[in-house]
Structures
1.
Amino acid sequence: LREFLIGAHDTTKDALSRRSTIWLVLDLIRKGVAPGDIDALRQAFYARKLPDDQAYDQSSETLDRWRAYQANEFGQVALAGALNALTGLQQEDHPSGIEPKDLIGKVIASSLPASNQSWSQWASSLVAGSATDELELVEPVLQDLGNGERPAEETMLSAFKLLAVLWARWAQGDGAVRPIIARMAGPEGRSLDGILRTLDIAQDQPPGEALAAVLLKHVVIDHQIIAGRKLSTAGTFTYHFLVEDGLLSEGLLGEYGYTTPRLFNLTRVLRDAGYLSDAGVTSDGEAFLEQYQPL
């Protein structure tokens, strides 16, 4: 097991990335992250902070990729919340169907307070001089998604704020987050980079109009494209709504969550390999940290 994890003579990209991630996980645990606290690992990877609020000042390309990955996860969770909000409202109030733009407008109007600000001003105000925490914003969204429930209005406000904070933090390419996502996700624009590009175009519009553009393109249209592709290539029906004769109908709520079980699995494997215990990093884990460095 250790030979596989370390892969000392393996110089492939996967092996280098695995060793580097192992180093970062062990280092964060020895600096205060509790073994098994996956949210704390995500927070440290993303915000570069330790549980005691001290900065995690490690520099690593792998760490940059993990931050980009987590930022993309936040964006996808926000959109999944919007999908359930749209399908839930359609089910309950418009069983015969409703025009997608009208449905989007209702979801946004019920959750987003009226504002005279532009999208850019509103998003910037959420992060200016505050300790806005993406993990706190995403928590109620994940809770409703995990239960397969239509998100409450205040939950959707958290999802919209999350998109705004992501745009304010990363739209300018800070921390290499956006370039990494653009490079890894490809040119089709269904990643966080695609969402940010839509918001770039709408940044001078009112917040509600900017969000309406995101939901129309990245929830309604993209969902149809992706579901249609899965149906044609694999015969798998994954539609959560249909759009026929200009009306959105047949809405189905779904259960969603993070797509990164890898961190949980990795900490389990590190325990099995003797690098971790309930008390933290073992002496063998410390030896690993001394022998290698994150790339």
Note: The longest helix spans residues 61-93.
2.
Amino acid sequence: MTRLLLDQGLPHRTLKQLDIPSWDVQHVSDVGLSRASDREILDAARNDSRIIVTLDADFHTILALDSAASPSVIRIRREGLKGRELAELLFAVWPKIEKDILQGAMITVTENSVRIHNLPVFRED
């Protein structure tokens, strides 16, 4: 089962669009995380085995700096998406990212590309 956690700033209406049997999708506003810090959201997603979907680059930064192995994060770099558009985008990219995202990855989705960085990201000092 695919378990997603949509971050603040993403349309709540996306939940209805992603309501399919193999997907379990929550929005941070529905689980008491609407005012949570990025670290608190990362911890909640990790504890609940969820993949974060966000507009926020900070999640990728935190994962990289911590050399964390989870949770996976999908960063959408397209502002102003409506619920249906976000759902269609996730459905379109899912076949390209599923294997990596389920093993732990940071994904960036732009208008023209999908970039994948497997977790953990190790830094050379």
Note: The two ends are 38 Å apart (CA to CA).
3.
Amino acid sequence: GIIASIILFGCLIASAYNPKPWAGAAAVGAFALFHGHAHGVEMQDGNLGFWYAAGFVLATGLLHLAGIALYKALEWRRLQAQVRWIGVAISLAGVGLVFV
């Protein structure tokens, strides 16, 4: 599920597909379950589990903010073609993960 989400979202970025908000939210939510489950399985019990989860949530939020900032910077400079190439790179990275 994680690799499929990387490939799919990369393809959506590369194609500049703009889904309806409910469809995008449903796809993000479904793939978030795969990502969350994978990281939740790694979490330890007790106090260390809390700190793992807190760090994970903070890191995830910062990564999302960095991605949004990069997109906005490229959009502001009218570099939509670069955004699409980043989508291609994301999809190829997902395909590469299949072989790891």
Note: The first helix runs from residue 2 to 14.
4.
Amino acid sequence: MTLRLLPCVLTLALVAVGAAAQEPTFDAAPADAWPLARGSLAGTGRSAAVLALPLAEAWHRTFEKTAFGAVPVIADGTIYLGDLDGTFHALALADGATQWSFKADAAGFPSAAAVSPAPGPGLVIVGDDTGVVRAFDRGTGKVVWEYETDGEISGGPTILPTAPGNRVLVGSQDASLSCLNLADGKLVWKHSIADQIRCAPVVARTAAGDRVFIAGCDGKLHVIDAATGEEQVAVPIDGPTGTTPAVLGDRVFFGTEGGAFFAIDFVKAATAWRAAPAAAGQAYRSSAALTDDLVIVGSRRRAVEAFATADGARSWRRPMRGRVDASPVVVGITDSRRAAADPRPAAIVADAAGKIMVLDATTGDPRWEFDAGGGFGAGPAVAAGRVVIASDDGTVWCFATAP
């Protein structure tokens, strides 16, 4: 692996930080930003935002001859999103106008990006399908540094605020997890497992220090010390997975290619519960989103499911028109019958047939839906009262509360 540092651009970026990004939290994304692939450091897929239903299309923009396979990230009124044909876009949240773009040679961007927190260099980090991780100046799109792995970057990077400087955690299909200095991209440590890493790393803060979680294609959940890169424990599961885990308390939640859904107690290094496959071919490629007592996940068996976090009991199952590889997002919702001070939890979901739905998180009942036409392989982002999602026909959609 090779680090390629572009020193003259780095100097400019460090002195021209621009507007402050909202710092990602462990439990939920702030209401005005979606800084990481799953919103928060713990990968909960949860936003502090409250949306008033019904939603309406604010705008959409179609990019010709390309497709999107990543979750957008959002900060300070800007959407950051790469397409599968090698262009990384910075778009205005207000109207979708291009603020800047970068074209990679012979590469695509299947991975979500990550926005750096304030204070610090104003960067957006993203990996491509050739294994190159780039840091862009958020204001100008200039490349600040590059770091090379030997495999595709499928899961989004995670930026961990820590002393003496912020760190970037990024997994690669070369079976390595790299920890980099945010400011210059230099390697702090690297940890390797037995097979590909396709998920985004997530983090929990414990009494013993920050712990990083990787669900691997090697059929194990890996728990790694964030400071040193040393593995604390590896818990066997029933097969490979590329989904990003979600952490709540002492438990980590994720599904597998074999169709089982797990809750792992990482303190006891044991399975807390396991939901067996409901039917053959039910692989989970959707990452889960969490409420306080439910875990909500999409299934390739054309459904969205909810399990009780306590014991894995299936709370509800909502059939969809297409398979659900896109990861759901949990928000608060209100409508004309509910006061804004009393929001109800809801899940925003999308399927491969192009259907977007808002489901009541408690019951699974539909509250709003929209037919976008093109299918979705990646989930939405929520920020500043807007829902942004990108489709496999090259369209970026933005929704807001109906006027």
Note: Residues 1-24 have pLDDT under 50 and may be disordered.
